[in-house]
Amino acid sequence: MISVNDFRTGLTIEVDNGIWRVMDFQHVKPGKGAAFVRSKLRNLRTGAVQEKTFRAGEKVAKAQIDNRRMQYLYANGDMHVFMDNESYEQIELPAASIEYELKFLKENMEVQIMMYEGETLGVELPNTVELAVTETEPGIKGDTASGGSKPATVETGLVVNVPFFVNEGDTLVVNTTDGTYVSRG
């Protein structure tokens, strides 16, 4: 058990028969009444985000999540195959459960698979990934980095707004949290 006063971003807890990751939290001490903790939680099974308020000092169960380093191999119909780098064991995850992550996954890419008591909860991506541009309008001489942006489609099908100087074939560094352009690779 852990006190809600000890919340930190990234902590996993068990609440209401669900496994939740703390995305954000705020300790509130109103002038009148008892202190409380306002939190933003993401359900690791469904991906749903929920705001929940706890009384200060309330205890919740800490969920022990095991992260296993795995390699994304290929898509097999609606299932996606991952292989454990140490045991070479393969697992399949349905496309519906990793819909957002598929926008950033390339074959042979290493990711962390979140496991809870033998149940696969999902894929944890690195903070940024490098993806090649497959389609974008050509840059025009005189366009500058600060002069705006244009859409570019990368190899996974994700559309990213990029500066005008980016061309087809360029490699981009993309933020996996919000799918935004970071830099050229």
Describe the structure.
Residues 67-121 form the Translation elongation factor P/YeiP central domain. This is Elongation factor P. Pfam families: EFP, EFP_N, Elong-fact-P_C. With 185 residues, the protein is an all-beta fold. The chain is 0% helix and 53% strand. The chain has no helices and 16 strands. The chain has strands spanning 2-3, 12-15, 18-28, 36-43, 49-55, 59-62, 66-76, 79-84, 90-94, 110-116, 119-124, 128-136, 150-154, 159-162, 171-175, 181-184. The strands form three sheets. It has a six-stranded antiparallel beta sheet, with no helix packed on it. A five-stranded antiparallel beta sheet has the order 9-8-7-10-11, with no helix packed on it. A five-stranded antiparallel beta sheet has the order 14-13-12-15-16, with no helix packed on it. Strand 2 and strand 3 (18-28) form a beta hairpin. The radius of gyration is 20 Å and the shape is flat. 17% of the residues are buried.
